[in-house]
Every structure is written in structure tokens, then in C-alpha cells.
Amino acid sequence: MKNNSGHDMTSHSGHGGARPGGLSVSEGGYTLQFDSTILSTGVQTVTFRVIGPDGQPVTEFTPEHEKELHLIAVRRDTAGFQHVHPVMDRKGTWSVELALEPGDWRFFADIHPAGHDGAMTLGIDASVAGQYDPRPLPGETRTAHVGAYTVTLDGELTPGEASDLTLTVSRDGRPVTDLQPYLGAYGHLVALRVGDLGYLHVHPEGAPDDGTTEPGPEITFMATAPSGGTYRLYLDFRHADGVRTAEFTVPATAASSRSGAAPQAAPAHTDHRHGHHTHHADHAHR
């Protein structure tokens, strides 16, 4: 499903919400290949390639949301989320600097190979050496604090049904009405299904240049949860020349099972400023 700016509001996997993306290292003949899936702790450069059906690195991509490749890094316990934009050399090798803590990590590459009929999300696991202390999954969270910013989430994830999620941004108690465009939108939302990290990359309704979409304080998304369960949501937004990430934990449940809902028939804070090499949710993205 696309909004009026052409943004895909369900999933980059090309399955329209039928299943999340990023569960496979290969799709449609394309494979995500890291130079090493055993990484060191700390700030480091990670290199990888996308191998095409001909067995060679892909060097031509169709930009999606102003970038040829979006890389999402997150630890398996859903900590350490980073959304970055690697640089590719002439031979098709991508490189990017990441700040990694010990543990098991999942990496997602959002791509649209030139000539392919659509975008896709490929995923790969990697291990970061060191003493690993997994963090408990945060409980249901609908308000996130990121420095001076507060972001509230309104709406429900419903399995198999499109639903609106509205995120409202304030700073020091005042609504933010001058959000800045980031990658062609006022916000980007990634949803990960807890348990297998099934990946959804949703985008807001409207666009900064459509003449009707306001630059805050509300950003509304349409998302489809592929199944019931718990999801971690990560909102990237840009304000005062900085990109920040607000994190949430929400359940996806059928409308009829929610408290006070009438029965229905079944449907058919962390601050990671990469420039400072810290690891928190208020950060500057590449």
C-alpha cells in the first residue's frame, strides 16, 4: 500500500503485510553477504555486499526514500537500534561505521536492485564478542522520552488489518510544529516482531512537499501487523538539525480481544549520536 508520495506504508518485503521482511538472508535471487559475521565490540567499520542472481555483487540500485540502501542494526534483545546509510564502492562493497555491544545482532538491508520489480528487506545474523548481559524486554510503552523530547503513541496494531498509528512529538512540554524532513518524510517507523525480529518498515501518510501534511506535532502511519504478538517500534524524526529515535513496546491483538471492545467477526532511553560514538536513542543518523 502506498501513500500519495509513493512511500510504501506496509513492508519492504513486497508481501503487503502478509509476512514481515528480513527473515531471510536471500530473496528473489539476491543474498546479503557480510565480510564477517563475528564482530568486535565498540565502534568499527562493517563491510558487506548484496550478491545478485549472477553470483556477482550488485552495483546498481534504485533509491528508496533518498538512499540506495538502508541498514538497520539491532541486538536480538531489541537493544542498540541503529538506522544508518552505508557507502558503496565501485565493486559493490558497502561500508559503514557502527557502535556495537557484545551479543547476538540482526542486520536488515532495505534495497531495490535496479531492474528488480520491487524493494525487499534481507536479514543476517552476526555475533559481537564479549560478555553479554541481555536486557529484559521493556513492558508495554506508549510514551518515550528522548532528551528534551516526549513522544506519545496512539493507536493499536491489529493482526492482518491496516491500522493508524499516530505519534505526537513535544519538546519541553510544547508541541513540535516544525519537524524537518528526513529521507523524504517527517518520520520513519520500524517495527520488529519480538521472538524472530520479523521486520516492518512503515512510512507516514503524506509527505513534506504535498501541500497538506503538517510538520508536526503529529505523524500518522498506517501499519499492518502480520500476526499477533509483541512488537518493538522505533520512530526516527528530525528536529533542530538532529535525528532522534523514540522506542516503544506494543502488543498486536485482535480488536475483539481488547478490553471494552465489542465482539467482531474474524477478519477475512538510550542516545546514540553516531558522531559521538555513544549508544543512545537521541542520535544523528547517517
Compose a concise summary of this entry.
This protein has 286 residues and is mostly beta strands. The chain has no helices and 19 strands.
Explain this structure.
The chain is globular. It has two domains: 26-128, Sandwich (Immunoglobulin-like); 143-255, Immunoglobulin-like. The protein is built from no helices and 19 strands. The protein has strands at 26-27, 30-34, 38-39, 42-51, 69-75, 82-84, 87-88, 93-100, 103-111, 120-128, 143-146, 149-154, 162-171, 174-175, 188-193, 198-202, 218-224, 229-239, 242-252. The protein is mostly beta strands and 286 residues long. The two termini are 27 Å apart.
Give the topology string: H per helix, E per strand: EEEEEEEEEEEEEEEEEEE
**Strand count, sense and closure of the main sheet?**
5 strands, antiparallel
Q: Give the overall average pLDDT.
A: 87
The number of distinct β-strands equals 19
Count of individual domains: 2
- The computed structural class is mainly beta
* Spatial strand sequence of the major β-sheet: 1-2-4-8-7
Distance separating the two termini: 27 Å
The CATH topology of the largest domain is given as Immunoglobulin-like
| Helicity range | under 10%
What is the molecular shape?
globular
Number of helices: 0
Q: What is the name of the CATH class of the largest domain?
A: Mainly Beta
CATH superfamily assignment of the largest domain?
Macroglobulin (MG2) domain
Q: Assign the CATH architecture of the largest domain.
A: Sandwich
Rg from C-alpha positions?
18 Å
Low-confidence stretches: 1-17, 261-284
Query: How large a portion of the residues is in β-strands, by DSSP E?
Result: 35-45%
